[in-house]
């Protein structure tokens, strides 16, 4: 999906990861240039990875694997360890979950976008819709954030900007009813419905119930929605606990990691893939419509170690 974005995905990944790379991974690469293989190197590497927000458990796992490879493959040069680390990062990031069959065989695809307040849901929806439209797909947006006062207007403004219709009710209305209406009007006129939902604190159970209700409305139309959880990359490790809560309430098919451009803590990507086993589908790399890229483990790992400025 979204071949439209793939054209420049590598460049966007590099741009999105730049702060992370400059703050931490450049140091990791230099560590291998300057240090001989030994306990000091492992200790320094551990410290750097934890500082890069990779998380203690994922860091420990990575270092264990590397030490094993050093033994098994009789690696003697520190810079060979760097290559092995890049490999290990790729395999850690390649979560083996099939991509949902959204809009397969000409069927309507429904993408339900969820997450806590302010993580970038509505902006990311506009980017996704813009990308799908660029591929010639017909998209309808459902303004199911009826909770926050200005949310309906916000998505309508995006809809106008990208010339995509928005189905909306009054503020305070039932979000599931908005989805129902959007599905009705999409049946003959659209390939995708993307549902904007209210930001919710993951510990509030009534809001989680509301999400389940929206999901049921979609399932009743015999469509399996793709649930896309938006996480804000700048929140680091807290994103992990958000993802756990959401995954308990609804089946989360994938993660869109927004604001990767605004943080040096991109190591969180590794912790998410390792600990949650939910694939990262997209990364958000800025505030403009084009600032979205499909997530690729290879491009991401490469960008972390890239020496281009
Ligand atoms: N730098 C950067 N900013 C982003 C990105 N995605 C979203 N933002 C900004 O994050 C802020 C919040 O975005 P929204 O899309 O309104 O977030 P939301 O999750 O819909 O917020 P609520 O509806 O209030 O829960 C806006 O200022 C966006 O421009 C990104 O990838 N990079
Ligand atoms: Mg919003």
CATH classification class of the domain at 104-252: Alpha Beta
Number of strands: 8
Q: Output the structural class.
A: alpha/beta
CATH architecture assignment name of the domain at 104-252: 3-Layer(aba) Sandwich
Principal-axes geometry comes out as elongated
Compounds present? Answer: guanosine-5'-triphosphate, magnesium ion
Count of helical stretches: 12
What is the overall pLDDT average?
A: 90
- Here the CATH topology of the domain at 104-252 equals Rossmann fold
Strand portion: 5-15%
**Any idea what the CATH superfamily of the domain at 104-252 is called?**
P-loop containing nucleotide triphosphate hydrolases
Question: Distance N terminus to C terminus?
Answer: 30 Å
Side by side, the strands of the main sheet go 3-2-4-1-5-6-7-8
């Amino acid at each position: 999906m979204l071949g439209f974005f793939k054209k420049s995905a590598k460049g966007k990944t590099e741009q999105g990861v730049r702060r992370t790379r400059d703050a931490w991974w450049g140091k990791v690469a230099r560590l291998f240039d300057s240090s001989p293989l030994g306990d000091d190197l492992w200790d320094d590497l551990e410290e750097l990875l934890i500082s890069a927000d990779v998380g203690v458990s994922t860091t420990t796992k990575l270092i264990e694997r590397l030490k094993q490879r050093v033994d098994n493959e009789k690696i003697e040069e520190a810079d060979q360890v760097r290559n092995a680390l890049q490999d290990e990062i790729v395999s850690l990031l390649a979560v083996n979950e099939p991509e949902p069959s959204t809009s397969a065989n000409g069927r309507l695809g429904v993408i339900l976008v969820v997450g806590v307040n302010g993580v970038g849901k509505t902006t990311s929806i506009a980017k996704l819709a813009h990308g799908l439209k660029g591929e010639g797909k017909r998209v309808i947006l459902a303004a199911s954030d009826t909770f926050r006062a200005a949310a309906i207007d916000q998505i309508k403004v995006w809809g106008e900007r990208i010339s995509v219709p928005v189905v909306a009710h009054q503020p305070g209305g039932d979000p599931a009813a908005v989805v129902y209406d959007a599905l009705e009007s999409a049946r003959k006129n659209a390939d995708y419905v993307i549902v904007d939902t209210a930001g919710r604190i993951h510990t509030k159970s009534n809001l989680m119930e509301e999400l389940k209700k929206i999901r049921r409305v979609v399932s009743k139309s015999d469509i399996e929605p793709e649930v896309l959880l938006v996480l804000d990359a700048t929140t680091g490790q807290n994103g992990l606990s958000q993802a756990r809560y959401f995954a308990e309430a609804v089946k989360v098919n994938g993660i869109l990691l927004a604001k990767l451009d605004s943080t040096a803590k991109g190591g969180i990507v590794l912790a998410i893939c390792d600990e949650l086993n939910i694939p990262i589908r997209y990364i958000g790399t800025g505030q403009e419509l084009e600032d979205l890229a499909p997530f690729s483990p290879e491009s991401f790992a490469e960008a972390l170690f890239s020496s281009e400025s």
